[in-house]
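Minutes, structural biology subgroup

Action item carried over from last meeting: produce the C-alpha cell record for Multidrug efflux pump Tap (Dyadobacter helix). EB confirmed the sequence was re-checked against the source entry. Recorded below for completeness.
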Amino acid sequence: MKTVSQQDPYAALRYSDFRFFISNTFLFSATILIQEVIVAYELYKMTHDPLALGLIGLAEVVPFIITSLFGGYVADQKNKITIMHISLVVIILGSVILYTVFQPGIYNAMTRGEHLAAIYAVFALIGFAKGFYSPASSSLKPFLVPRTIYHNSSTWSSSFWQAGSITGPAIAGFLYAYIGLTHTLLLVITSFIVCWILLGMIKTRPEFPKITTPILESLKEGFRFVFRTRIVLYAISLDLFSVLFGGVVAILPVFAEDILKVGPEGLGVLRAAPSVGSLLTMFLMAYFPPTHNAWRNMLLAVAGFGLFTVIFAISTNFLLSCAALFATGAFDSVSVIVRQTILQIYPPDEMRGRVAAVNGMFVSSSNELGAFESGVMAKAFGTVPSVMVGGVVTMAVVTWIYLRSKDLFSVRLS
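Output recorded by EB:
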C-alpha cells in the first residue's frame, strides 16, 4: 500500500478499494432505509398499531442473532466479498417478494393477516442475510487501508453510512408520496443490484487462515476476547443500551402521523434529521478526530444522546423535534467513531470476523430489538412516556459505566 500522512483528513479516500467499499456502504444504507421507511409507513396505515412496527424489528433481529455468530466464523475463513455477494442476492430476493406482494392484484387478493405474515417473513429473510453480510463487511474494512489511518477510515465509512441514512429516509417519503409504493420498491431492487456490482470492483482479497479449532470453541474465542478487553466491552455496552432504550426510529411514523401530524413527507424529514446531524459532525471529525480523549468523548456523547431523546419525546413542535433528532445524530456519531476505531485497533486480524459478529449481536441487533422494545412500550404506556423513559435509562447507563471505567480516560486511539 502507498503511504499517506496520518494527519491527512482524506487519507483513507486515497485508496481505490476503500472508495468502492464506502460507495457500496452509502448505497446499501440508503436502500435498506428506503425500503424500511416505506414498508413501515404502509404497515402503519394498514394497522394503526405501533406494535406492528416493532414486530418488523423483532422479525429481523431473531434470525440476525441466530446467524451472525456463524457469519463471523465464516467471514474469518472464507472470501469476505463472496459472502457479501451471496448475502446481497438473498436481500434482493426479499425485495422482489415485497414488490410482488404489493402489486395491486395480489395485494387485493390477500387478507390483512397474509400481508403481515409476508412482510414479517421478508424482514426475517433480510435479517438472516445481514447476519452474514455485516460481519463480512466489518472485517473487510481494516484490510483496505493501513493501520495508521484506521481512525480516518472509521470516520469516512461512518460518514458514508450516515449519508445513506440521510438520503434514504429523506427521499423515501417523497418517493412514496409521488411515485407510489411499488415503483419505489422497483428502485430498491435496482439499487441493490448496483451495490452488488460495486463490491465486485474491490480488488483486495484478504488472506484467511484455516481455523482448526472446533466451531463452538472458535465462536467462544470471539466472546472471550470481547469480555476480556474492557474498552471493547464497555464501548459495545454503551452503544447497545443507548440504541436499545433511546432509539425512536421505529415509532417515528406514530410521531409523524398522530403527534406532529406532518404526513409521509414530514416522516422523511424526521427520519433523516439524526443522520444529517451525524454526517455534519463526522465531517468535522475528519479534521478533529475524537480519539485524543476517546473515552471521555464517548461517555459525553452517549449522555447527550439520551438527553436530546427526552427533549424529542416532550416536543410537540415539528422544528424542535427535528432539532432534537439532529442533536441525537450528532452525539451518536461521536460514539460510533470511537467504537469503530476501537474495533479496528484491538482485535487481531484472524479474529476480526468473530469480534465483528459479537459486536453485531449486541449493537447492530439492538437497532431491531430497540424497534421491538419501542413498539411494545408505546403500546403499553403510550408513545411519549416510553421515549422519555428510554432517554433517562440511557443517561443512567452512562453514569454506571463512568463509575466503572475511570481508568480508561487515559486511553488514546490516535
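Discussion: The chain has one domain: 12-202+213-410.
Next step: EB to file the record with the rest of the batch.
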